[in-house]
Amino acid sequence: xxxxxxxxxxxxxxxxxxxxxxxxxxxxxxxxxxxxxxxxxxxxxxxxxxxxxxxxxxxxxxxxxxxxxxxxxxxxxxxxxxxxxxxxxxxxxxxxxxxxxxxxxxxxxxxxxxx
Length: 115
Hints:
globular
């Protein structure tokens, strides 16, 4: 018997709202997930992302990122592979993702350097 694959729902690019993107990226865990995905060629499985929270909490973070339109997910068997919707986000909000990720990188550098 063949298993029917259904893709999890994501909003169409034209329905993505700025306030939702900013809310999704305001959480440090979700921001780090997006930073990691953005630096990666291709998709990453959620098990390959080192998220320092419980599995149920990580699932919630992935759901928020997906439902706000930040990431796309592809299911293969029992695994989910995530990618940033970079092109769609850049078309809808030019420069937003670059600005947020660059700022996060600067903040990360400051936090890890000795005072």
